């Protein structure tokens, strides 16, 4: 049974999940997405499944290079069971898979390519147009005013949560810092710093890759270019390509969305920490 939010409880639970046993977790109300209190945002379950895959099949000096998390429908705010396996393994690569189940019904599946870590002698290579000047966005990146979004620990702008349909779940459990004056409502490329206020699993330390996956699904939310008053749009998957693990709890999303009549929409973002980019996110989106 999922943990219910008491009438007088704070908006934020103590964690996104509480462990029942090695494979089963209680979902708290803080996993709920903007669609309502009964369906989870994809961030927590994708982080849970990715973390379980890596923990179940721990391999020192291997790096999680790519994860694709497939949503098979709504993920209920309820007890969830995780199953993982190794589909392919060599001395240099692993292909891991995982399934998230609700009452023995699969609600999400994932696959992870994991590689033996690249040698330390490898030259660092970055795409110049995506590079940041410290913590500010480069002038070559198409701006959404104001152009520069710098990290400032002394300021926490309030997020107008009333702009979303359900605010007592994931949105309140994360801390957001936006360049835009009206976050979640500004159309166009979006930029935000995001970090969780609570751990993924109660009493267990978060992992760098878990934090990355926890935030990745917010890509299209901060880079909204589809008028939701005219269209229904939702992603059915999250694909994260990670070239290095983040080194801080605050992570940056710099994203945008493209859409084509007669086709579909795609949201994509660069993710990074306080010093450098670390991953790329892609989300294919159904639009009606």
From TrEMBL:
Gene source species: Nocardiopsis rhodophaea
Q: Which domain of life is it from?
A: Bacteria
Q: What is the lineage of its organism?
A: Bacteria, Bacillati, Actinomycetota, Actinomycetes, Streptosporangiales
Q: Which Gene3D superfamilies match?
A: Acyl-CoA thioesterase, double hotdog domain
Per its record, how is this protein called by name? Thioesterase family protein
| InterPro entries noted in UniProt | ACOT8-like_C (IPR049450), Acyl-CoA_hotdog (IPR042171), TesB_ACOT8-like_N (IPR049449)
Indicate the segments forming the Acyl-CoA thioesterase-like C-terminal domain, all copies: 162-276
Acyl-CoA thioesterase-like N-terminal HotDog domain segment(s): 32-114
